[in-house]
Amino acid sequence: MTPPPRTDATRAWVHDAIALLEQEATRSADTHLLRLDFPGFPDIAFYFKDEASHPTGSLKHRLARSLFLYALCNGRLRPGQTVVDASSGSTAISEAWFARLLGLSFVAVMPACTAPQKIRDVQALGGHCDLVEDPAQVHARAAEHAANGACHLDQFGLAERATDWRGNNNIAESILGQLRREPQPVPAWIVCGVGTGGTSATIGRYLRYRRLDTRLCVAEPTGSGYVHGWRTRDRSVVASQPTRIEGIGRPQVEPGFLFDVVDAVVEVDDAASIAAALLLEDLLGTRYGGSSGTNFTACLRLAADMRARGERGSVVTLLCDRGQRYQQTIFDPGWRAAHGLDIAPWQDALRDALQRGVLATPAGA
């Protein structure tokens, strides 16, 4: 569908929309960087960037703002136009927030298996959820909406370029700024998961731009498309097994995942991710989602390797979203039992790691 020509009224609307996004960014304070120290790692500090404290409850708040700005500044978003994107939930919630801010209709194309609370959150913000039984078809369904005149924000295709990786208070710049008065202001590792690939691309590029020795680790569910893609440098590979951790562990390699800015990939079992999410709640007093547990497990794995080599330093990771969104899934013992997820062995292994500085994989895991 050919868009109508730009008019003075359209340009004025775009200017007003960008001003609204800038005002929202100014009102939103930066997220906290929390520190934890553990007896088993006396020379290694752990830092957690609490992205769940954004107004929409996840690190996708940054991405959604960037995607709207990208669409506006590239002339792709017009007054009154419906906005659409494919999402497993958190991005859709943030996009629904910004669509409401701009007075636009929003459609989230989501897998039908998405956590019910996420669907309710999108709807509460005025968005419509187009649920797809086959998760592999969400991109095609979003494209159908775009063919009918909607603006496709396309988080999976545009995330790595929509965010300004050189600065502008991106997540990497924020982390390094908050560490500047810490004993180890340049961390040994930054750990993140991969949904679209935008966060890992931003962090990896920024570390190189600043000429820092910090390495970037991607924490992913076992057997994900990103795991196999990074190891083989083959963008056509697919996941060897599914995951129950929403937001990461994509079945295929998305366009925004940049292999060459990632220094290491750590695979994490779903049971370990959930056990680590519950452990984070005990340590921090707040419940975070399963991807935060994936990140935490990878941090402990990296720190155990550092300790074995006699290295000192710090490890930084992200707390990605609010755990309340998963009350009916990963935090429900009945749901876990129905999906064959026994987290007890991993709970013991993770707590033992905090005390001894060694992360042993439980027998049978």
How would you describe this protein?
This protein is an alpha/beta fold and 365 residues long. It folds into two domains: 26-55 and 164-354, Rossmann fold (3-Layer(aba) Sandwich); 60-160, Rossmann fold. It is built from 13 helices and ten strands. The strands form two sheets. A six-stranded mixed β-sheet has the order 1-2-10-7-8-9, sandwiched between helices. A four-stranded parallel β-sheet has the order 5-4-3-6, sandwiched between helices. α4 (116-124) links the parallel β4 (106-111) and β5 (128-132). α1 packs antiparallel against α2 (60-73), α2 (60-73) packs across α6 and α10 (270-284) packs across α11 (290-308). The radius of gyration is 20 Å and the shape is globular. It starts with 7 loop residues before the first helix and ends in a 9-residue tail after the last helix.
Summarize the structure.
The chain is 42% helix and 14% strand. It has helices spanning 8-27, 60-73, 90-102, 116-124, 138-147, 155-162, 171-178, 198-209, 225-232, 270-284, 290-308, 333-338, 344-356; strands at residues 33-36, 44-50, 83-86, 106-111, 128-132, 151-152, 189-192, 215-221, 264-268, 313-319.
